[in-house]
Amino acid sequence: MVIRTEKLCKFYGTEENQIRALDEVSIKVQKGEFIALIGKSGSGKSTLLNMMGGLDNPTAGKIYIGDVEISGMNAEALTKMRRSKIGFIFQNYNLIPVLNVYENIVLPVQLDGKKPDEAYIESILKTLELSSKKTSLPASLSGGQQQRVAIARALANKPEIVLADEPTGNLDAAMGNEVIAMLKQMNEKYNQTIIIVTHDQEIAEQMGRTIRIVDGRAL
Amino acid sequence: MIRKFALRIIRADKTKGISAIIAMILTSILFSTLFTTIIGMNKASEYSEIKKSGMLSQIVLKDCDSKIEDAIEKIRSNDMVDSTGYRKYLADVVNDELSYNVELSYEDEVYSTHCFQDLKEGHMPEAENEIVMDESTIKALGIEKKIGASVPLNLKIGDTYVSEDFILSGWFELNNALEIKTGQVVTSKCYAKKWESNYTKNSIYGAESVDILLKNSKNVEEQAENLLTQVGLDLETVRFSVNPAYCDDTSTIETSSLLVMIVGILLIVIVGYLIINNIFHIATIRDAKEYGQLKTIGMTKKQIGALIGWQAVFLLIVAIPIGILVGLSIGEYILPSILSQTSFKVVAKDNLFEMKEIVVILAFSIIFVLVTTLLSIFGPIKIIGKLSPIESSRLELKVYNKSHKTTDGSKLHKFAFYNISRNKKNMIILIISISLPILLASIAFSVLNSFDMDKYLSTMIYSDYKVATDNFFKNSYLTNEGEIASVSLDTIEDIETSDTVEDGGLIYGSCNNLNIVIENEKKSRDDYWLNLYGLDSFNLQEDMIFENDIDLTAFYDGTGILEGVWLNDDGSIMPGTSNYDIGDMVNIQTEEGKEKEYQVIGHLNIGGSVLNTGISGDNITYELYLDSNSYKQLVTEPQLMAYTFDVKNGQESNAEDVMKQITSSYPDVDYQSKTTYEEEFNTLKNMVELISILLCGVLSFIALINLINVFITSILVRKEEIGILRSIGMTRRQLVKMLLFEMLYYCGLAFIVSMILSILLSITMVTPFCNSISFLTYSLRPSVYVYILLIIVVISGVTVTFEEKQISKKSVTEQLRSV
Predict the structure, then answer these.
(1) Which of B289, B732, B812 to mutate to test the interface with A (most CBs of A within 10 A)?
(2) Which regions of chain A does DSSP assign to beta strands (E)?
(3) What residue numbers bound the domain in which B359 lies?
(4) Which residues form the ABC3 transporter permease C-terminal domain (chain B) (predicted)?
(5) How far is B404 from chain A (nearest CA, A)?
(6) Among the four A22, B76, B155, B535, which has the fewest Cβ within 10 Å?
(7) End residue of a domain, out of B242, B274, B290
(8) Closest residue in B to A162 (Cα–Cα)
(9) Are residues B446 and B585 in the same domain?
(10) What is the pTM of this model?
């Protein structure tokens, strides 16, 4: 089991005005799965993804990455765990504007104190058709190119898990399909566990498994 | 609606509001303190000279006769005149208890006011037996200081002695600025009339004078001549004097000094501008996203401009009054403290500022802060106005390059550099805004440590004491009455016999005696001024002579003569001050047909401690120095200008006592000593220290505020980006490290810029300027950079740590969430 949650809860506010973003969510994810977390806007799917990625702390319940319980970890430990085991892809790409494509991609590796595996990085660049854009800064790239850089960055550290929050949200349909296809390719090539948050049913149908989130609960 | 909205924005972001207000207050304080202090010091200098002269008025008409009496009304009603006063000198007060001169006179109220005798209590005398007098004399006579107290006075009128009983009707503070302490007793008009019926005018007793206070203090001599001519008085026959405190000092500011002052003021103006600019410019760019969002709901460019403008106005309304008031108060508070440490302490308690000057300072400071703020917001308003909402939201994070070829930019130290250099123009402005205050502070610090007592003393005095008349020290060796204020031989003998003198020498000086003529001078005697001196060997020091290795044999054997000259800052002879080259012959003739030819053997640097009369002519002035024996052989009536001497070891305090006694016994004699100059030097140093420390403090604070503001703002606009970095694995420690690098880059670059500029400025301008000042030998003090660096490093560390803690209070998700 790569990821496991047990009765995971995330509440905001006090009793009268409490928002139950996640309400006792228990799910299990196996290695190599390609999963879509689907639900309406405000259903809690992004919240669940953030919890799994150690970006936020639960109000109650537990999260395991492998055998390690991360729900009680401190921020620093979570950060270190995240950069070695998890790759994150955001809807807004979230590239660092002052670093070029190559530097953005290898940033998590550098932060982990390791030297980038140049051959591996080159292969990612080639797969994602970014080889000619290595020295370009994000501002000079199209949305699709930026998202591909974000994907490459997520993969740079050879993470076990890739979490993507609406990775096609800011792309047109054709580009969106291309990105999903690339992720599928990564999943098949590197046997990475990939979980994608989407509200798009068509994208969800391309995944191996779908977990529906409704009002903070997993169906 | 816009105004209310602006007010709400300010209330919502108190940090920004407070930062902006602090910046405006600081700038207002900087300016108003600086100008208050500078104008105040200047006024103090002028006013202390006036107070030392004993009179506020510029002109005194002496020995008033009927002609002057007839002209008084015309004088009073003349447009040039502010007011006139009248005085009649009646007697000397000679009570045994008094150890100083006390004068009894009738003065009208105007004259009293002009003589700084404003009553503290009581009223001007009306009854025949009423008097007002100064508090020191009341105390010296042992009189009870209360209205109606009995005051028995022993009076001397010419050769007549008489005792009178008076009643005290009021008192005033003695003018302590006077060089020679003189008490004043003022009688009523009734008493003056009674005096006239009992006594007749006899030299100074009964002498009447009218003083005239002009509205304008410029070109007083010219005004005096015009006024007296206008009212029908004959300039040849009327006796009048012009207050020397108002005599125009026509020394112009040298170009280099002017340049330094202009550059200094410019730098301070830029510093003030930049601090306000930083706050507003950065704040507006930071809020660009919000302004962009307002655009999406329909707010026009003009409305957004008004929104930003009104925020500035509300902040200005709070900041300007506080800043100006604080600045004025600081200036007015520290000014007396500064003055009390200097030779201007006599005016430390006086109100030096007129309303118009306060208004000028206020107006200038307000205008400057206003203009700076408007300029600071104008730029960003223009930029935001042009952008779309999306572009607005990315304004600060916009990177202007398209690529760079490095591959290790993700290493923290490089990453930090890329962060600070996103927008090169902004980075440069920010570096300048931090480096300028550091530059000014380092120069101020160096000036502080450049005081050179030896240099100062070498230009002032070469012996322990120099003795002359008080007129000589006031540059009135040749008095307005045309008399030479020489010192008597009796005075010198008294000093020499006091057994405190190790060695000494006389200096004779004939100040433009028309009987002494340069025979081989083509110009007529009226067209040149001649100061002829005789020096004892004690008064001719080697370092006074401009040329090296001069053989003085000819000087002492009476065949050689030295010419006094002035030197430029670079040590060359100032053009126009030297009329002779070495080897030229000078033929001097005096009355009774005495004539001698001398060869010029060298030049004396008058700007050093060489004594001269201090008086020169409008055309050519010759300053010629002979050996004293040669002088006495040539000049029938030698005029003893000064006596200088060194004190025996261990006799220093005795010497001081002797000199105090001498000045008491000979009231017209005064002296200056190395101790006096050392004290003057120390007071000067204290004054400059106070100002420099204040300046350094304010400037350093400004630099720090700039640095902290710039840094905190750059973090705030990157909140989301920092969230991203945390999300992809940057630990808090790595974040702190990166932020520290950024802070240190800002500081380092600012430090390098300020160091280079301070070296350049020191070499080109500051050193020559300071070295032209008698008490400074400027050198840049490297230690200041260590102190600055230390402060910078500490502040950087604290700011980074604090700011990182603030950021990390939020979870990564909250940081990633857009506002």
Answers:
(1) B812
(2) 3-12, 19-25, 28-29, 34-38, 60-65, 68-69, 86-89, 161-165, 193-198, 209-214, 217-218
(3) 1-53+255-399
(4) 263-389, 696-809
(5) 6
(6) B76
(7) B242
(8) B728
(9) no
(10) 0.65
Are residues B143 and B172 both part of a single domain? Answer: yes
Residue ranges in B231-354 assigned as alpha helix (H): 255-286, 288-296, 301-340
Instruction: Kindly report the nearest CA distance between residue A83 and chain B, in angstroms.
Output: 4
A167 within a domain of the structure (yes/no): yes
The closest of B535, B532, B530, B558 to B545, measured between CA atoms, is B535
- In this structure, are B233 and B85 located in the same domain? yes
CB distance B813–A50 less than 8 Å? yes
Check if A117 contacts B (Cβ < 8 Å): no
**Contact in structure between B504 and B463 (CB atoms under 8 Å):** yes
Has residue A10 been placed in a domain? no
- Given this model, what pLDDT does residue B494 score? 92
**Shared-domain flag, residues B716 and B787:** yes
Q: CB B350: neighbour CB atoms within 10 A?
A: 17
Domain of residue A177, CATH code = 3.40.50.300
pLDDT over 80 at B155, yes or no: yes
Tokens of B294: 């307002």
pLDDT band per the 50, 70, 90 thresholds, residue B134: very high
* SS percent in chain A: helix, strand, coil, step 5: 35, 25, 35
- Same domain assignment for residues B567 and B582: yes
- For residues B323-340, give the mean pLDDT: 72
For residues B182-195, average pLDDT: 92
The vertex-A50 CA angle with A47 and A55, nearest 5°, equals 130
- Contact status of B329 with chain A (Cβ, < 8 Å): no
| Binary contact (B399, A57; C-beta < 8 A) | no
**Total domain count, chain A:** 1
* Structure-token pair, residue B513: 């005696």
* ipTM passes above 0.90: no
Per the structure, the count of domains in chain B is 4
Amino acid A11: pLDDT: 87
The residue from B242, B266, B292 where one domain ends is B242
A 149-178 residues with CB < 8 A to B: 153, 157
Which region, left, alpha or beta, applies to residue B14 given φ > 0 means left and ψ of -120 to 50 means alpha? alpha
| Chain A residue numbers touching B401 (CB-CB < 8 A) | 137
CB contact under 8 A, B404 and A135: yes
Residue B250 lies in a domain: no
- Inspect the interface and report whether the beta carbons of B399 and A84 lie closer than 8 Å: no
Determine, yes or no, domain membership for B816. yes
CB B374 within 8 A of CB B78: no
| pLDDT above 80: residue B215 | yes
As a whole number of angstroms, the longest Cα–Cα distance in chain A is 56
Per-residue model confidence as pLDDT tens digits over B222-264: 888 888 888 888 877 777 888 877 765 544 455 656 666 677 7
B418 touches chain A (CB under 8 A): yes
Tell me A51's DSSP state: H
Tell me, yes or no, whether B440 and B509 share the same domain: no
Full residue range of the structural domain in which residue A140 is found: 33-57+81-218
Are B408 and A103 within 8 A, CB to CB? yes
**Phi and psi at residue B407, in whole multiples of 5°?**
-125, -5
Q: Is residue A157 one of the residues assigned to a domain?
A: yes
Whether residue B476 lies inside any domain: the answer is no
Residue B293 domain flag:
yes
In this prediction, the residues of chain A whose per-residue pLDDT falls under 50 are: none
Size of interface A-B (CB pairs under 8 A): 105
Q: What secondary structure letter does DSSP report for B517?
A: E
pLDDT at B795 over 50: yes
